[in-house]
Amino acid sequence: DARFSFLKEEFDSPMGYQKETNKNRQKSYLIMANHKSSIKRIRQTESRRLRNRYYSKTARNAVRRLRALTDKAEAEKALPKVTSMLDRLASKGTISKNKAANLKSSMACHINKLAANA
């Protein structure tokens, strides 16, 4: 997928992974898959990892932008979008349901504090 192509740094081929053993020496070795199913599983895992990484990073940035808002009206308008994004990630298992609940709670507290300051 073109959206995730910039994230593929360590995936080398559909036959295996390029692993780095030591950061200083830059030694690397290739783990080979022996079965068709394991080759497919490596491909699936890699694409899922990149997808999860992309969506979780997008959600983190959305939470960061919401916390940076100082206007209560803007923050209340953005809260349902960020909440639905977090709920979607939690339902798919990218983040835990508890983490999503904690983030939503802290964002609601942030918006309530904006009202008290204004």
Task: Write a structural description.
This protein is α+β, with helices and mostly antiparallel strands and 118 residues long. Helices cover 64% and strands 14% of the residues. It has a three-stranded antiparallel beta sheet with strand order 1-2-3, with helices on one face. Helix 1 (36-68) packs antiparallel against helix 2 (72-92). The termini are far apart.
Topology:
Blueprint: E1 11-13, E2 16-22, E3 27-32, H1 36-68, H2 72-92, H3 97-117
Low-confidence stretches: none
Total strand segments = 3
Count of individual helical segments: 3
N-to-C span:
45 Å
Radius of gyration (CA) equals 20 Å
Secondary-structure element series? EEEHHH
Q: Would you tell me the structural class of the helices and strands?
A: alpha+beta
Major beta sheet summary? 3 strands, antiparallel
The residue-averaged pLDDT reads: 82
